[in-house]
Amino acid sequence: MYQYDAIDQQLVEERVAQFRDQTRRYLNKELSDQEFLPLRLQNGLYVQRYAPMLRIAIPYGMLSSTQLRKLADISCRYDRSYGHFSTRQNLQLNWPKIEDVPDILAELAEVQMHAVQTSGNCIRNTTTDQYAGVISDEIVDPRPYCELIRQWSTFHPEFAFLPRKFKIAVNATESADRAATQVHDIGLHIKKNEAGEIGFKVIVGGGLGRTPMVGVTISEFIPRMDLLTYLDAIIRVYNQQGRRDNKYKARIKILVKALGIEEFRSRVEAEWQHLRGKESTVPMSEFERLQSFFSEPNYAVLENNPASLTNKLADSAGFARWFERNTFEHKKAGYRIVTLTLKKAGQAPGDATAEQMHKAADLADQFSFGELRVSHEQNLVLADVRQDQLVELWDAAKEAGFATPTLGLLTDMICCPGGDFCALANAKSIPIAAQIQETFNDLDYLYDLGNIDLNISGCMNACGHHHVGNIGILGVDKKGEEFYQISIGGASGHDASIGKILGPSFAQEEISSVIQKLMNVYVENRYEDERFIDTYRRVGITPFKEAAYAKAN
Amino acid sequence: MPKLIKNGDIIDNPYNWLQDAGQEVTANSIVAAQKWLTEKDTIGNIAGIWLEAGDGVEFLQGVDLNQFDVIGVHFPAFTDGRGFSYARLLRERLNYQGEIRALGNFIPDQLGYLLRVGFNGFQFNENVDLEKALLLYKSFSVAYQGDVSEPRPLFLRR
């Protein structure tokens, strides 16, 4: 993974010093609440319902075991010994003290980490596929490009006070989009043109929140050397012309929609003509420098399907289940990608205790070259596990609560922290997740249902991505009471779509029975091996709606 | 006389920022750009013009900007970042060489970014302690991106 040099290190240290001084002036009342607000947000610090929340960046999801141990350690000394992995490859601490945050940031800097621009109206942490670099059908490894974008966006002097937040995600394979790139302000799809040159298809104006939209293509191919000047052009147009009179209409998607993609594209092109070929054009030497950090680890020469694996697959249904659901094909023979799920019943989705973080770090050292990834689905990934060590890893993962064999299934939910923590939330989301986990606890049934994305957000800000869940649950406030609106038909992959609202919202205790009714409709209507989303697309919303609102006989 | 920060020093402010269209125009005035545009043949000598957020810089294409000693950029709120792009375009696209002065509700903690996009004059609101603001003049000694003072990104210098 990327290693800081003296300059990268100096930058994060200077940032810590700057924020230490800002915090001191705030606590001395030299900075007002209003002035401190964007300064703290650009260092990841929110003020939440009960306490501040600190969002730490895990750039494009890459984490070393040393860094994860540091996060565990920080959560013990400054917080309540756990953290929450978010959908955008960040880690959130829910209970730090404001006056401790500069010290936390200083400790993060010791392990080349930071909380820079994890919040605020600026360019946020760039995210990508958690399987980057280890899958066989990838066009190229997206991580060097993510690091290029990270450096370009970090302390960008022109774009620190945009109309609204700005999120970029990168995908590098035709076969899947695990980073939900089409619902980002900019989605980048790595491509090769006919001449074999690397570049990007650029998608703009996606986003969730109050006005969910799937992005539209602004350019089919931008050569990689021109990436930064093209991004500068898009964001310069947005910075000047995006709406600033209403925060709910301030995202780039609203500007793109208002102008239409043709007009928006021509404005970006006009701006780009001035920037293209100038100093920010990326030279080959920089691509090579960045790529050098992501060279392959020292893989052993191995065969696929060693006897120790195939024997266990035959002997143990539990292991076979876990292997099928929670591991993924690796580009190297004899290796496998393993997801350590953070979706154990009784634990909030995406939460990990300090003890679990230490355990995951140990497993990374023992089985996967000391590195981990954080996924959009709020799980941890060991990317380089030898197939002949899978049984041993499975045993250890079970013990640590990482082996719930439900990756991609109904109970592998995405869930925001909700009203238990978040000041913005209209309703709690964690109890809904818990209710669904308790109700749908029969593994055979879950397997039979197959791949279903269920996403829960506690308010329309949509941190739990409910719009793009096959089933989406949104917490709403009705005269001071918490209700839940259910939508179906959303998707976040290459076939991204926004879900449709089923109808009037439901009380908390009704949710599981409604989900059960939706599942019954699916099971009755599906063709063999047809996924929930495909059945929905074929039969439409009506049968689901009728079942959900049918009066009991 | 009110003070301002210019090129890293606290100096007396020689100019008068005319926020109100009805105010009398003198040779020391910084006049709203839109007003100047409609009255430029009759307005006489002025120190310079100022841009309101929303003006953009397109309409200054073809104008000899170096006739002005100063171009002001107004920040209606410090979170309104349009002025950052305006200053950069004034320097990099319109080749303006004179003082670019931040006006209005920007705050000392923004000085680093303001300097990098081409501002060199800072007329803070009256409640700001300029001596303390100067302490924040440069919080970072290096930067990844190119900017107005160093167009080459770090990757060309690493």
UniProtKB/TrEMBL annotation, chain A:
* Residue span(s) of domain Nitrite/Sulfite reductase ferredoxin-like: 53-111, 350-400
Q: Which UniProt keywords apply?
A: 4Fe-4S, Heme, Iron, Iron-sulfur, Metal-binding, Oxidoreductase
Q: Name one Pfam family in it.
A: NIR_SIR
The keyword Thylakoid belongs to this UniProt entry's keyword annotation: no
Entry keyword Phosphoprotein: no
Q: Which InterPro entries match?
A: NIR_SIR_4Fe-4S, NiRdtase/SiRdtase_haem-b_fer, Nit/Sulf_reduc_fer-like_dom_sf, NO2/SO3_Rdtase_4Fe4S_dom, NO2/SO3_Rdtase_4Fe4S_sf
**What GO molecular functions are on record for this protein?**
4 iron, 4 sulfur cluster binding; heme binding; metal ion binding; oxidoreductase activity
Recorded hits in SUPFAM superfamilies, A to Z, give: Nitrite and sulphite reductase 4Fe-4S domain-like, Nitrite/Sulfite reductase N-terminal domain-like
> What positions does the domain Nitrite/sulphite reductase 4Fe-4S occupy?
119-274, 413-548
User: Which protein are we looking at?
Assistant: Nitrite/sulfite reductase
Q: Can you name the source organism?
A: Marinomonas arctica
Automatic annotation (TrEMBL), chain B:
Identification of the protein by name: DUF934 domain-containing protein
Pfam families, per the entry: DUF934
**InterPro entries, A to Z:** UCP030820 (IPR008318)
Q: Which domain of life is it from?
A: Bacteria
